[in-house]
Amino acid sequence: MRGAAIALVLFAAACTAAxxxxxxxxxxxxxxxxxxxxxxxxEHARILASYGGAxxxxxxxxxxxxxxxxxxxxxxxxxLKYQVTVLNSPAINAFALPNGQLYITRGLIAxxxxxxxxxxxxxxxxxxxxxxxxxxxxxxxxxxxMLSHVVNDVLSDPQTGAxxxxxxxxxxxxxxxxxxxxxxxxxxxxxxxxxxxxFGASRILTGxxxxxxxxxxxxxxxxxxxxxxxxxxxxxxxxxxxxxxQFSSPGSGERDRAEYLTNLDGVIYGEDPSEGFARGRKFQHxxxxxxxxxxxxxxxxxxxxxxxxxxxxxxxxxxxxVVSVPAEQSLPDYLKSGWMDNVEALTVEEFTVNGFPAATAxxxxxxxxxxxxxxxxxxxxxxxxxxxxxxxxxxxRSFRESVATFRRMSLQESAQVHPLRLKIVTVGGNDTVxxxxxxxxxxxxxxxxxxxxxxxPNDRLKxxxxxxxxxx
Length: 472
Known about the structure:
Blueprint: H1 2-13, H2 39-50, H3 58-73, E1 83-87, E2 94-96, E3 101-105, H4 106-111, H5 115-130, H6 133-153, H7 158-193, H8 200-214, H9 226-229, H10 234-245, H11 257-264, E4 268-269, E5 277-279, E6 282-285, E7 290-293, E8 298-302, E9 307-311, E10 316-323, H12 331-335, E11 343-353, E12 356-364, E13 369-377, E14 380-388, H13 393-403, E15 407-408, H14 411-416, E16 420-426, H15 433-437, H16 445-452, E17 466-471
Parallel strand pairs: 1-3
Antiparallel strand pairs: 2-3, 4-16, 5-6, 6-7, 7-15, 8-9, 9-10, 10-14, 11-12, 12-13, 13-14, 16-17
Helix pairs in contact: 3-5, 5-7, 5-8, 6-7, 7-10, 8-10, 8-16
């Protein structure tokens, strides 16, 4: 997986900045006439735009608010007020603003297996607010910037200056690490005093780590999940266990798995309809009205900025995005306009894809070779970038065959595309992980079934328990 992630990073880095790439943006919250949005309102709008807006589910929202109310009552600062927003994103993430605005994605909510696990995440973020970590970190950053200025403008000894900067950076890194441990400690204690199982923190951290191991790598900033800013190192998981043992032994405290899972029945899993759907090799976007199929052996990952694909083994990759190109600019001219380095002008050719004007060209990089396609679809241009470490005639042919599948979806097709959803089932006497995983409408069904149900590699299902499956 690490090699695959590196391949995608290299692939993305091969493209130069594209200022014409379209961004999804949401309007700022309404403000009184004549007043400018506050910094908090601007940040809230930015977060909504980055994470697909708010997810509207009354049962889930009500459950989270009740958990937060219990945590506040048991916290060191019961006077603080919190407002929770569920984000319409499959990413596994949660964070807080200094003013007490909490954010949690539906992806993380779907991953949690009981109330205690969700409470541990919310309590951790509340811990950051209580300890004023955002404000302290900002002050540390200002001090580091000031030190950098002094080093650059005052100190004449380069070695002394470099040493001073290195020490400052290490101090900030260590402080950030200490913040995470402090928030963990505050969160576990808060959860325990609120009556939740304090071992929920170690379980959800372990679940996030296992989820990351089966997740397709992506370069989308929105996909930088909870583990990116809250690393679930073995030391941190062990620390969560030590903190929990200070309050109770395993098995005590409320988990209320059955009620929690019941409230998740029908929750969207994976992409939202507004973003299109990546199912195996096939991508469908009913809202924009197009579909295409990736070459054999590829798996796709849908992000806010692009559809990314990687072939098993990591030797080939693809990217599809949409850009604005003036109607008067021809597609061959666009391919040669400089948005991609080292385009070979002699390889540019025009053709059509299912009635749509198109053009293609080759480009070269240090470690990768590229096949570029631009397809004019309506008022936009769809841009396919295929990359191969070892470009062959067969690989180039498969890239062309993939682009040839790009077409408009019919109204009937669009109406038949639905998001995946969680379905909560009761485990029967003859049910096993393998038999229930057969109902999973995902790749790697057995692994994903275990991950979303908090089951280890050797754990078995118990008749009468509730379990999650993912269905169309």
